[in-house]
UniProtKB/TrEMBL annotation:
Coiled coil: none annotated. It comes from Mucilaginibacter oryzae. This is YCII-related domain-containing protein. Belongs to the YciI family. It holds the Pfam family YCII. Transmembrane segments: none annotated.
């Protein structure tokens, strides 16, 4: 996993994901992923998300209390768990 920071206070992090070549059952997994982040958004953890035009890349901006919470959010992402997407960069701000 990509280490985002050594932040211990609440902060925002922009996460960048790419689709892996071994994406099997990607559609079902991405649907579960959308539900996962919708739930996080309703709890105030997701600020914004989107896709890069014409690319197999997307981003999510999350608001976390600390890096442990960030790691938990990433590790519970259904697409990461199923190796459909991989985290390629985490930028705290």
């Amino acid at each position: 996993m990509v280490q985002a920071s050594a932040y211990k206070n609440p902060h925002h992090v922009m996460l960048f994901f790419e689709q892996t070549n071994s994406a099997v059952n990607a559609h079902q997994c991405l649907s579960a992923r959308a539900n996962y982040y919708d739930d996080l958004k309703s709890n105030g953890k997701v600020v914004m998300s989107g896709n890069f035009w014409n690319q197999d890349k997307n981003f999510i901006i999350v608001y976390v209390s600390n890096d442990a919470e960030l790691e938990q959010i990433i590790s519970n992402d259904p697409a990461v768990q199923q190796n459909v997407l991989e985290l390629v960069r985490a930028m705290p701000f």
